[in-house]
């Protein structure tokens, strides 16, 4: 079994150290295929998106360069501003709940016992489902005519509520759906952090007569505080990108009450074909996410400093 | 203190049951005839079940086309990501070439770019190329995700350099070092990255939604979405639910088998 | 068999010179040990010979071939690494065969060589296992066997014993010495452990800060250290160094210590200027003895079994290590008398160069 492949990039034997420079360029061949994809699918579209956001155009091409007009229009567009508000509202509904429930589950389930293993499997299971399956399931829960909640309230002798058609209740309903779908991730992130807490700390605390509550407050929580912040930021980034749930469950209604920024971008781009305007909205969202991502980087890189 | 602990466990067990209830509800509905559900969904409690909805799916064929599409796209993307990320990870971790460090930093910055910031222009690019409604259009955007390169670079860096050196003294070429010595050692990372990529591709919604507009090119995720669009008027509630089960069950079964890797992959991708 | 010649070799990492204009001749069939503290450049030098580091200046020859421009695989060398560097996913057999396969050796020849090497190192029963299933000592043997199958002109060892426990290290040391006798191949061995260097080497190359401090046989290095650095690095316990003043006493040298003690050494005055000097006395030449000329106070007594080390303080407070018999009466706090064998003393001039008794 001799070497099956030709020696593409072996150092040139005859004339280093200059030969090694030449081999240096050959070494770049390993990263070239990926870099080509990266440039074509991320760098170019990113730059092009920024350029598009300064144009007015449709499916058939750019009609005019309008400078920052799309952005001024966005900030005067009541619908866009409403979607920004809706997005923040959704983040407020989901992120604290996901973080705290995830932490609670992790604290209780951080044991090798069999029942805990089963429960961890259950809580993470919904994470692997696609948004279309998740929304299908939950529409059949919220459906006023024969949905699970309707059946239950009828059994209790009450009138079923049309959650998804009520401007007050539609967003909380989507938030519940999302928490059900996404609870696995914060749980496993907290579990991973809890596993990292040195056992000696707990043994030392026990020798110091610390009770369960004291141990949790003075040992466990401080030890995972960095993870706590990371989970919050990760969830903010993820939930900021809310799209499929309202698109499939409510179409942004009733009366725009559940329309988030991404759905606005999607509809502006692919329903009204105002690509420049949609691209501008996308840049605004990108800027918001970038702020959160930078916060994540700062927190993550503080790891080394500790 | 003991009792406090027990209350917490009881709460978590109840929450676990609540997690399962919606799934069981859908499963039960999928086993009822459409006619029975038209009258009243309460009928799920009458104990009469049927497999006619699943029979209808098998007879329909459309879902199978979508599953086939999803398989092609997910497997294609997984293979592509593994190949590109392994090559690039080895390159960034082990080889010297001009501009290596700055290129790696740029790729890492790519992690912060959300899909929304590029999707409009991407869609335009594929329109100009006339590639929409093809498999390459569904696969190629996924190949650019920086996460795989990041993961593989980290993994290659963790392999002792002595191994490369031993292989070089054993007259191995750069490619032999990569292919025969280092790559076999990255199999755990390949598994993690492969499963994560497959899952993301399988569940991806927005890009296939706008790229595959021809029903024949729908992935399963988009196909299921298309059937629930006119949901309120649907007369085939049981059929719809059977589709949901049909779409969700395989991935749940895969999850039960590869749970460890999947949890690792998802947590790793988030906590990068 | 081939010797190794280094001529004016230099290496820098960034702006830092790691090897400075170093020249060295290693004879064919010789066992040479590079000895020095960490950071002295000994491993870098070995890796330059292997081809794992580039050479910035100078020339390396193995036999009469210039090799510093060749890739590692074409230099005819085999290396045993500090952490063994066995390929974890390959069986021991494949580990040993990998290098031969890469150069297209015939399959039956590979099989024969692997078999022979496995026989000689008694690892025949391990051939179908993977490295992860082996103990540290077994991995060490496999690493050596993998080097042997290549039938190289030159063996390179990079601190290969540092990961073994003490007993295994002694055994493997002996086996390496036997291996060298049997194969008669040129070997270069890098270590920071003076015992390994003393026991294995035909010649020791003491390196410090990228330069050769001294090249010589083990006894040369021990008995005639070329510099203060070599004197302090080799020998356990560390040589006693005391400041003193040199004066001429009829050809031989008289040293006066700070407390007034006068020592008549056997070092020739030729090449030494009168004035400040450092005198070096190994512990075995400072013995605790009833009628000794020098009085000192014992601070710590270390009983090693076959001998006893007594850490003492002279009248002026300077510390000294003296040796006593295995069963010693000395106790900490005692006043003891020391008999100093000044004829065995080493003198070091202001530049740190060593001067020794003739012969």
UniProtKB/TrEMBL annotation, chain A:
The UniProt keywords, alphabetically, are: Cell membrane, Membrane, Transmembrane, Transmembrane helix, Transport
Q: InterPro entries given for it?
A: ABC_transporter_permease (IPR051393), MetI-like (IPR000515), MetI-like_sf (IPR035906)
Which intervals of the chain are annotated as region Disordered? 1-20
> Where is this protein found?
Cell membrane
Which CDD domains does the annotation name?
TM_PBP2
- GO annotation (BP), single: transmembrane transport
Q: Which residues cross the membrane?
A: 28-52, 88-109, 121-141, 169-194, 223-243, 277-300
Keyword Cell membrane in annotation? yes
SUPFAM superfamilies documented for this protein = MetI-like (SSF161098)
Bilayer topology annotation:
Multi-pass membrane protein
Q: Signal peptide span per the entry? A: none
* Entry's Gene Ontology cellular component terms: plasma membrane
Q: Name one Pfam family in it.
A: BPD_transp_1
Provide the ABC transmembrane type-1 domain boundaries: 84-296
KW Transmembrane (keyword) present? yes
Family label: Belongs to the binding-protein-dependent transport system permease family.
Q: What is this protein called?
A: Sugar ABC transporter permease
């Amino acid at each position: 079994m001799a070497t099956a492949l030709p020696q593409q990039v072996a150092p040139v034997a005859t004339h280093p150290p200059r030969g090694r420079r030449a081999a240096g360029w050959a070494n770049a061949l390993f990263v070239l295929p990926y870099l080509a994809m990266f440039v074509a699918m991320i760098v170019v579209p990113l730059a092009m998106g920024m350029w598009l956001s300064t144009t007015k155009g449709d499916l058939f091409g750019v009609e005019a360069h309008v400078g920052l007009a799309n952005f001024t229009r966005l900030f005067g567009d009541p619908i866009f501003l409403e979607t920004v508000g809706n997005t923040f509202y959704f983040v407020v509904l989901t992120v604290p709940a996901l973080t705290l429930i995830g932490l609670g589950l992790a604290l209780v389930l951080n044991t090798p016992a069999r029942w805990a293993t089963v429960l961890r499997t259950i809580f993470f299971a919904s994470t692997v489902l696609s948004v279309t399956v998740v929304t299908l399931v939950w529409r059949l829960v919220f459906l006023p005519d024969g949905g699970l909640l309707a059946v239950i309230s009828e059994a209790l002798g009450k009138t079923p509520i049309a959650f998804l058609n009520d401007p007050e209740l539609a967003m909380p309903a989507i938030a519940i759906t999302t928490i059900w779908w996404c609870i696995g991730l914060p749980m496993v992130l907290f579990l991973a952090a809890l596993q990292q807490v040195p056992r000696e700390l707990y043994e030392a605390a026990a020798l110091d007569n610390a009770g369960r509550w004291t141990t949790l407050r003075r040992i466990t929580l401080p030890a995972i505080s960095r993870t706590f912040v990371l989970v919050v930021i990760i969830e903010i980034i993820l939930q900021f990108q809310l799209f499929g749930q309202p698109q499939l469950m409510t179409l942004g209604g009733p009366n725009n009450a559940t329309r988030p920024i991404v759905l606005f971008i999607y509809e502006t781009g692919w329903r009204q074909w105002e690509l420049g305007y949609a691209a501008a909205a996308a840049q605004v969202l990108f800027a918001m996410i970038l702020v959160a991502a930078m916060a994540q980087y700062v927190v993550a890189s503080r790891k080394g400093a500790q | 203190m003991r009792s406090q602990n027990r209350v917490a466990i009881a709460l978590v067990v109840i929450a676990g049951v609540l997690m399962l209830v919606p799934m069981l509800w859908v499963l039960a509905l999928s086993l009822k005839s459409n006619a029975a559900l038209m009258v009243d969904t309460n009928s799920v409690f009458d104990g009469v079940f049927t497999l006619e909805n699943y029979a209808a799916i098998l007879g329909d064929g459309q879902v199978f086309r979508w599953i086939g599409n999803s398989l092609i796209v997910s497997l294609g993307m997984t293979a592509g990501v593994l190949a590109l990320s392994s090559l690039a990870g080895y390159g960034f971790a082990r080889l010297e070439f001009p501009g290596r460090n700055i290129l790696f930093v740029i790729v890492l910055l790519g992690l912060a770019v959300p899909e929304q910031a590029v999707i409009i222009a991407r869609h335009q690019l594929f329109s100009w190329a006339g590639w929409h409604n093809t498999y390459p259009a569904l696969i190629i955007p996924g190949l650019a995700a920086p996460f795989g390169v990041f993961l593989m670079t980290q993994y290659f860096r963790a392999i002792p350099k002595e191994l490369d050196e031993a292989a070089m003294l054993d007259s191995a070429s750069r490619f032999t070092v990569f292919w025969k010595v280092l790559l076999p050692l990255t199999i755990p990372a390949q598994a993690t990255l492969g499963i994560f990529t497959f899952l993301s591709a399988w569940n991806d919604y927005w890009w296939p939604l706008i790229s595959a507009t021809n029903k024949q090119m729908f992935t399963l995720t988009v196909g299921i979405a298309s059937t629930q669009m006119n949901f309120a008027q649907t007369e085939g509630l049981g059929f719809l639910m059977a589709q949901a089960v049909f779409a969700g069950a395989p991935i749940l079964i895969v999850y039960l088998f590869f749970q460890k890797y999947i949890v690792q992959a998802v947590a790793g991708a988030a906590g990068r | 068999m081939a010797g190794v010649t280094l001529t004016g070799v230099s290496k820098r990492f960034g702006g830092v010179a790691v090897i400075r204009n170093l020249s060295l001749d290693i004879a064919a069939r010789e066992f040479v040990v590079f000895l020095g503290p960490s950071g002295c450049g000994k491993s870098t030098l070995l890796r330059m010979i292997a081809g794992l580091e580039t050479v910035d200046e100078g020339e390396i020859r193995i036999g009469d071939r210039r090799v510093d421009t060749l890739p590692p695989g074409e230099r005819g060398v085999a290396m045993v690494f500090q952490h063994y560097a066995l390929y974890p996913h390959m069986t021991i057999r494949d580990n040993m065969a990998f290098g031969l396969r890469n150069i297209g050796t015939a399959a039956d020849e590979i099989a024969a060589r692997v078999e022979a090497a496995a026989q000689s190192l008694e690892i025949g029963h391990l051939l179908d296992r993977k490295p992860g299933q082996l103990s540290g000592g077994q991995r060490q043997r496999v690493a050596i066997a993998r080097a042997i199958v290549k039938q190289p002109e030159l063996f390179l060892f990079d601190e290969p014993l540092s990961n073994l426990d003490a007993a295994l290290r002694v055994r493997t040391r002996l086996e390496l010495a036997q291996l060298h006798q049997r194969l008669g191949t040129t070997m270069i061995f890098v270590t920071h452990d003076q015992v390994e260097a003393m026991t294995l080497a035909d010649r020791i190359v003491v390196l410090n800060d990228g330069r050769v401090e001294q090249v010589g046989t083990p006894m040369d290095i021990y008995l005639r250290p070329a510099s203060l650095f070599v004197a302090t690095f080799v020998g356990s316990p560390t040589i006693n160094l005391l400041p003193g003043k040199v004066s001429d006493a009829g050809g031989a040298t008289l040293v006066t210590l700070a407390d007034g003690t006068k020592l008549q050494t056997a070092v020739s005055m030729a090449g030494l200027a009168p004035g400040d000097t450092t005198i070096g006395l190994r512990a075995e030449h400072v013995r605790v003895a009833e009628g000794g000329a020098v009085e000192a106070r014992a601070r710590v007594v270390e009983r090693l079994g076959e001998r006893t080390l007594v850490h003492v303080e002279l009248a002026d407070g300077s510390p000294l290590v003296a040796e006593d018999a295995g069963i010693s009466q000395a106790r900490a706090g005692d006043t003891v008398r020391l008999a100093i064998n000044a004829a065995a003393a080493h003198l070091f001039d202001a530049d740190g160069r060593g001067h020794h008794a003739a012969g």
